[in-house]
Design a protein that fits this description.
With about 550 residues, this protein is an alpha/beta fold. It contains 15 helices and 29 strands. About 30% of the residues lie in helices and about 25% in strands. Keywords: Ligase.
Length: about 550
């Protein structure tokens, strides 16, 4: 297998995989990092060679969301009984100033100046510190912390072959915390076999070769960056570019231009921000002629957005991936040569060695006919082994059929066509039921995104006394559309294209930066729903106050 060259845009960490991985393995062995089943918690984007070195050693790598606070970090460490923590000196999150991790470390290890590590988490044996603050933070007094650079400075000079670790393809190698858009995150256990083969198949669908250069702005603590990024490129000899530590749309577009990237990854909110910058002239329309493919995933991808990406960024072979953390993560994917309508309106076909069925969400034994909507369940090599330490939660989603085959129930509503294409119509929990009629938010979102003044939108259901639920839309307008498009015009637009019951009752305008998102870029609809209810209640109180004041004035006039 030809190994790709590591390209980390904006840094000096470039080199050949095999050499760097060997050095990292040697350094990690010297530092006595654990072999399987030792657990390493990662609270930073560590250089890729260290990631592969940990995989070679058989350690279980657990990347954490860098926005986690002390309570969340200690909860994860304790829940997993992790032995090692790799952490950076600073946290870099989108549109925020860097935040020092030293206060978190001080809570985790009260006496950082001590030579011996004594943590509030009893299982923790070692902390490795990645210096990413450009010298702003003095760490010389942190005696019990291991600098990441020392791992490379104490290398075995003869580069001895790595001793046999007795690894099995089915060993857990990666634990991914689910994103938690609707609930507390759970720890999904993924194996060597599941993530490596998923990466191979993803790269195959994209037709990746050693000539490809993939720009990967999604975060590396998420399956998107870790598997669709790491594994798909490494198994095909392709180069990979990480523009910045946290997502920056300008840096992403410039990386594509400067590195002559042929592929671009992103979730819908990332692509929308990039398109807005191009439309506003912040980044020039040039240097994108090398782009051909990429991946849009992470949440439902509206067809109108796909059309814009084809036209504006030359992503004519852009693919759609569908999956979830628990499935390593991809179950279905479009191909670069799929008919355009299939790439716009479906999530493609199943990957090899993956099975799927659409079932009645109230009766898992009832498999629904082709074309009928129900809950999607998948089975295959890619399904997680379990949620760590949560057998009841595992049993709730990994359900055996009458023959004993395990099916992962996704919680997504879907339908399957006779030719094998799968269409996702939304999260079952996000389904809006208005007067007994089912409304799929994605259908309304697609319609609104086709409006020339609308940049982004999120549609959801809110309580309604008459119909049970009403449709509400949070709308982001283009810069030139701010203050020009009215709620009445937006409702009229939907009314002209969709059935009357799909027209939003409530329109809320919001800045793109105010959309509540997970650190991986997914919009958190449950937070928008809470905000919508607050706004509706405020309006109702104001209306009642106005009516009360009007009544008092009328009574005074009559008097």
């Amino acid at each position: 297998m030809e190994l790709s060259q590591l390209i980390r845009s904006g840094s000096e960490s470039e080199g050949v995989w095999s050499e760097l991985c060997s050095r990292a393995v040697g350094g990690l062995l010297i530092r006595n990092l654990p072999s399987f089943p030792g657990l390493v918690i990662e609270l930073t984007d560590i250089p890729l060679p260290a990631t592969y070195a940990l995989f070679k050693l058989g350690a279980v790598l657990v990347p954490l969301n860098p926005s986690f606070n002390f309570n969340q970090v200690t909860s994860a460490l304790s829940h997993l009984e992790a032995s090692h923590l790799i952490i950076s000196t600073e946290v870099n999150l989108p549109r925020k100033d860097p935040r020092s991790n030293i206060p978190l470390l001080q809570e985790l290890v009260p006496d950082l100046q001590s030579v011996k590590l004594q943590s509030t988490v009893s299982s923790l044996k070692q902390i490795i510190l990645v210096q990413n603050d450009a010298g702003r933070i003095d760490t010389s007094a942190l005696k019990c912390i291991t600098p990441y650079t020392s791992i490379y400075s104490e290398l075995l000079q003869d580069m001895k072959a790595l001793p046999d670790q007795g690894l099995s393809p089915t060993d857990v190698v990666n634990i991914q915390f689910t994103s938690g858009t609707t609930s507390m995150p759970k720890a999904a256990c993924l194996s060597h076999r599941s993530i490596l083969n998923n990466g191979v198949q993803i790269g195959d669908r994209m037709l990746l070769t050693p000539k490809d250069i993939v720009c990967c702005p999604p975060p590396l603590f998420h399956c998107f960056g870790c598997i669709l990024g790491y594994m798909a490129t490494a198994t095909h000899g392709s180069a990979i570019v990480f523009p910045t530590e946290s997502f920056n749309a300008v840096a992403t577009l410039k990386a594509v231009q400067e590195e002559k990237c042929t592929a671009l990854y992103g979730v819908p909110t990332m692509f929308i921000e990039e398109l807005d910058l191009l439309a506003d002239g912040v980044v020039p329309y040039e240097g994108f002629q090398y782009l051909r493919t990429g991946i849009a995933a992470g949440s439902s991808v509206p067809s109108e957005l796909m059309k814009k990406l084809h036209k504006t960024l030359n992503l004519t072979e852009l693919t759609i991936c569908y999956g979830m953390t628990e499935t390593s993560p991809v179950s279905t994917m479009t191909a670069t040569d799929d008919p355009i309508e299939k790439r716009l309106n479906t999530v493609g076909k199943l990957l090899p060695h993956v099975e799927a069925k659409v079932v009645n969400p109230l009766d898992y034994d009832q498999i629904l006919p082709l074309g009928e909507r129900g809950e999607l369940a998948v089975s295959g090599y890619h399904v997680m082994k379990e949620y760590w330490g949560a057998p009841e939660k595992t049993a709730a989603v990994m359900v055996p059929d009458s023959e004993g085959k395990i099916w992962m129930h996704t919680g997504d509503e879907a339908s399957m066509s006779a030719d094998g294409y799968i269409t996702i119509t939304g999260r079952i929990k996000d389904l809006i039921i208005r007067g007994g009629e089912n409304i799929h938010p994605l259908e309304v979102e697609n319609c609104l995104l086709a409006h020339p003044s609308v940049s982004n939108v999120s549609v959801l259901g809110v309580p309604d006394e008459r119909y049970g639920e009403a449709v509400a839309a949070f709308v982001v307008t283009h810069a030139e559309g701010e203050g020009k498009v009215t709620s009445a015009e937006i409702k009229s637009w939907v009314r002209g294209k969709l059935s009357h019951h799909l027209v939003p009752k409530y329109i809320f305008y919001i800045d793109a930066s105010d959309f509540p998102k997970t650190a991986s870029g997914k919009i958190q609809k449950f937070k928008l729903r809470e905000r919508a209810i607050e706004l509706i209640n405020e309006d109702q109180h104001q209306e009642m106050a106005a009516v009360s004041a009007s009544g008092t004035a009328a009574q005074t006039e009559r008097t």
